[in-house]
Design goal:
384 residues, alpha+beta, Beta-lactamase, 3 domains, two-stranded antiparallel sheet, 11 helices, elongated
Length: 384
């Protein structure tokens, strides 16, 4: 069954009937012009927690729940403006599967794309046992190993796609030969609204078009926790480049430069330090400095214990969430060594002094226990 691009998505996903998102057309979803929010609000909140704790927050969402959430959501801004939406891509994938009378999106895309192109190593993990056993592990900003996400719902948005360079090469070659299913999706149809991107970005059905040094290329990138990727294609020159990385650093500029010889395009070669890493560093250094001063001023043993616990909290936070793909790890070692030296000097000063002041014992013990518990929590989050 062919699904006209102008059909509203509720035609194929009846649970969305009568809702603002249900009236968005398939074409608007495919071009990210439907004003669909990025994710349902509860998923957004859990996603933020997942970033902080390095845990998978998408695996629990089920299709009916996502559809009910979407049916209750208002549009996010005005239709007609490009605003990238993973929820929109998800709804489109399931709508296309429904239109093709397939039981799920994975069956649909396997029948439509993977089997015709012999992409036998590409899979979509709905559960952890579907992750390839030899899959490389991703890394987060601080060098931590990223949790490998899975999802039974968000697969059309690329939440848990596993593939190989060989399979992507088959796909790119089919595009260059003009034999890939859905080839018209690459054709630019609408003006893009990406002010940060140079050249002349435009969008087709999920594919972006960019002019770099007089050459017109089509591209799409991807990013999940600990992984980034970029496929860029110059159909006129008959060339394509695919770059994938197991870190959070974008590979877009690398792919653009490999294809065109120009360091230009989406993203930037000068990757800014992530906001979370900056915030964590600021908080951690304040904790470490404050604890160091408290250790220097300690007049009882318990005051020193509390200061040491605060320093451990700061050091733990900095180690787990600091910008260690931008800054040398030696910096953390030096600060930790200076902190340890300060604590040792404090031990020498208070060794013959009482454990606590009589009226402040409970408060001092509570502060020390809370700081140690917080440090343990931060470290446990970093060891996921």
């Amino acid at each position: 069954m062919k699904s006209p691009a102008t059909d509203p998505v509720s035609t194929y996903l009846p649970r969305l009937a009568g809702s603002p998102i249900g009236g968005v057309t398939l074409e608007e979803l495919a071009s990210h012009r439907g004003a669909v929010p990025p994710f349902p609000p509860p998923t957004m909140a859990r996603g933020l927690w997942g970033l902080l704790t390095n845990t998978d927050q998408l695996s629990g969402d089920q299709l009916d729940w996502v559809l009910d959430q979407a049916a209750a959501m208002p549009l996010f801004g005005g239709r007609g403006t490009v605003q990238y939406s993973n929820l929109g891509a998800t709804l489109l994938g399931w709508a296309l599967a429904s239109a093709a009378e397939q039981p799920d999106w994975q069956t649909y895309v396997t029948t439509r794309l993977l089997t015709p192109l012999a992409m036998t190593h590409t899979r979509f993990a709905a559960t952890r046992d579907q992750i390839p056993p030899d899959a490389p592990r991703g890394r987060l900003v601080g060098g931590r190993q990223a949790v490998q996400g899975v999802s039974p719902v968000y697969q059309p948005a690329g939440s848990s796609t596993w593939t190989t360079p060989e399979d992507i090469a088959r796909y790119a070659q089919a595009i260059l030969r003009g034999t890939a299913p859905g080839l018209p999706a690459l054709d630019p149809r609408f003006a893009g609204e990406q002010a940060a991107s140079p050249g002349d970005p435009r969008i087709g059905y999920h594919w972006f078009t960019l002019t770099v040094a007089g050459r017109t290329v089509q591209w799409h990138n991807g990013a999940t926790a600990g992984y980034t990727s970029m496929l860029v294609i110059d159909r006129l020159a008959g060339r394509a480049v695919f770059v994938v990385g197991n870190s959070t650093r974008p590979v877009d500029p690398v792919a653009i430069r490999l294809l065109t010889g120009v360091a230009d395009g989406p993203g930037s070669t000068d990757v800014p330090m992530p906001v979370i890493a900056l915030a964590a560093t600021t908080v951690a250094l304040i904790l470490i400095a404050g604890a160091g001063f408290a250790a220097y001023r300690a007049r009882t043993r318990l005051q020193l214990v509390r200061a040491t616990a605060g320093a451990l909290l700061g050091l733990s936070l900095w180690r787990v969430a600091g910008p260690w793909d931008h800054a040398p790890g030696l910096l953390w070692i030096l600060v930790a060594a200076a902190t340890a030296a300060n604590v040792m000097l404090g031990i020498a000063r208070v060794r013959s002094r009482p454990w606590h002041r009589p009226r402040l014992a409970a408060l001092s013990w509570a502060g020390a226990v809370l700081a140690l518990a917080a440090a343990g929590l931060v470290l446990s989050m970093g060891l996921h």
